[in-house]
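Example for tutorial group B:
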């Protein structure tokens, strides 16, 4: 409740769970630079275009440890807590009376509409999607058109070490705004649990920012990436 209202007053937009599809508005660069948003509380993902920012991005990526990808054995989504819980302590917006999904929609969307009698449940919005660079008009009746992406996929984190984490730490990474972006549903579905060596956002302008966000999550959770993924991340910020 209060948390969702706070998100609306501090963020320029809100993202919803469903869309009617890209609008005629075309390309957009709305969002927050990941370098200026180390906790993930600002909306979207803005491009990094200056030489200074891209050099800072490379320095950050260089800090990420590497190792080989382990087996997926034993992975289940439920190992990271039930989806969009409001009780994952230790992350922004936890225990504010509004679930993680709606918090993220309220953080990144604009022109929000709420369910009658609720100041939390978003039923309509416009999303400036960082992955495609398009503006999406979303309605809850078409939920899958906008999805909440785990920037570092949960299955990927499981294979890179989260299988040995505490349940509490897994709940944190699954609900941490730093690791979550409302995005175009089909693009997110095509990503699956791929790392950046296998999948990058179609919008080339934000690929360096995407690599930075992965690095921020990896460093915050002491999570390595594969050597191929690190090379791909560095390449986006050259």
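The residue assignment follows.
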């Amino acid at each position: 409740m209060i948390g969702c209202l706070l998100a609306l007053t501090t963020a320029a937009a809100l993202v919803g769970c469903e869309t009617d599809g890209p609008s005629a508005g075309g390309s957009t660069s709305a969002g927050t630079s990941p370098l200026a948003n180390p906790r993930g509380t600002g909306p979207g993902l803005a491009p990094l275009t200056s030489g200074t920012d891209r050099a800072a991005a490379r320095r950050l990526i260089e800090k990420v440890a590497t190792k080989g990808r382990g087996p997926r054995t034993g992975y289940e989504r439920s190992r990271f807590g039930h989806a969009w819980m409001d009780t994952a302590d230790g992350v922004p917006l936890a225990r504010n009376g509004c679930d993680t999904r709606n918090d993220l929609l309220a953080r990144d969307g604009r022109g929000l509409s709420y369910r009658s009698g609720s100041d939390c449940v978003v039923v309509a919005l416009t999303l400036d999607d960082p992955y495609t660079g398009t503006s999406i008009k979303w309605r809850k009746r078409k939920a899958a058109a906008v999805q909440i992406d785990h920037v570092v996929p949960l299955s990927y984190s499981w294979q890179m070490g989260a299988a040995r984490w505490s349940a509490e730490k897994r709940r944190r990474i699954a609900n941490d705004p730093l690791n979550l972006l409302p995005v175009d549903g089909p693009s997110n579905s095509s990503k699956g649990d791929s790392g950046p060596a296998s999948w990058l956002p179609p919008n080339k302008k934000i690929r360096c920012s995407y690599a930075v966000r992965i690095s921020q999550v990896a460093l915050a959770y002491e999570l390595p990436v594969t050597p191929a993924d690190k090379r791909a991340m560095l390449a986006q910020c050259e």
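Residues 19 and 86 are 24 Å apart (CA to CA). Compare this with the pattern of hydrophobic and polar residues in the output above.
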